[in-house]
Specification:
Elements (H helix, E strand, L loop, with lengths): L1 H19 L17 H6 L2 H16 L1 H11 L10 H16 L4 H15 L4 H16 L5
Amino acid sequence: MRTRHKARELAIQTLYALDFNNIMTKEHIPQHFSGITDTEYAELEQEVKLYAHYLVQGTIENLDQIDGLISQFSLNRPLDRIDIVDRNVLRISVFCLLYGDIHPHIIIDEAVKLSQDFSTEVNYKFINGMLDTMQKQLFPLKG
């Protein structure tokens, strides 16, 4: 669904800005999304806005648990050494695996697409492998 993909893009951009500025707290969740103008925001479908806010808020509210899982499954790359874009793609994806109602394969496919769109050409492989391993070990019945 194009609407959800757009929402994920906005959520990634917003989390990136918060992470870059080291303000990943509930108090700093913006009402507006990073990377778009006021006019572009006004033109967004309500469903896009709602889902993007849900992703940003849910990810930040569960950040300790999410980062703990990422650290647990990223044995060779500490959390602070994961590229900032990829770190936030992983965060949203783990949030969706934990609390979402979307099939894990869709979550992983979307994470790969987002990484390909916003990160380097090779980092999507890291994200795909990590999320696939996490899904198989933590949520085998969802797969």
